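Researcher: Quick test of sequence recovery. Tokens follow.
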């Protein structure tokens, strides 16, 4: 990965991660997290780890973020009801999309030219990822799934409305 490719991509990743932290609307924060996860997948593509990049998009940017958005909508945390500032957001989104399209074009061009980094031959392959995930990182993998389950159950309990008038859940 060249420096000319790494630094702009790293800057976009940091900006989108800051968007996660500083967004006042939870839905916008979740969408900034999706952008961060997609940019992380671009790093994996640049490292010739195409399987890991695909898993990053499918599992994290896809399935896990759908669960997060479901919980956010269930909790009804909407705060942004005004229409002000929409043109600024659209401009930033259009510029970001153009930069991201350029980054993807650069990655595809470099990938077609052949590998440029020094990585192991089996880096990012299905067998290597499975071996690592289910041997070295099995406990972390299972704890993450339990943590997500607990978070969703907790959000459902917090979002439950008190209809009886007793003040108890």
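Model:
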């Amino acid at each position: 990965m060249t420096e000319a490719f790494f630094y702009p991509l790293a800057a976009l990743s940091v900006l989108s991660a800051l968007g996660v932290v500083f967004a006042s609307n939870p839905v916008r924060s979740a969408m900034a997290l999706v952008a961060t996860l997609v940019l992380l997948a671009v790093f994996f593509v640049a490292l010739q780890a195409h399987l890991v990049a695909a898993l990053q998009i499918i599992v994290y940017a896809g399935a896990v973020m759908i669960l997060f958005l479901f919980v956010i909508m269930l909790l009804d945390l909407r705060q942004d009801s005004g229409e002000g500032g929409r043109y600024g957001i659209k401009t930033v989104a259009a510029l970001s999309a153009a930069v991201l399209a350029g980054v993807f074009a650069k990655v595809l061009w470099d990938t077609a030219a052949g590998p440029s980094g020094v990585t192991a031959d089996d880096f990012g392959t299905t067998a290597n990822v499975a071996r690592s995930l289910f041997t070295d990182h099995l406990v972390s993998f299972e704890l993450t799934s339990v943590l997500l389950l607990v978070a969703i159950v907790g959000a459902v309990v917090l979002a439950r409305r008190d209809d009886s008038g007793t003040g108890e859940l």
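The chain has a mean pLDDT of 78.
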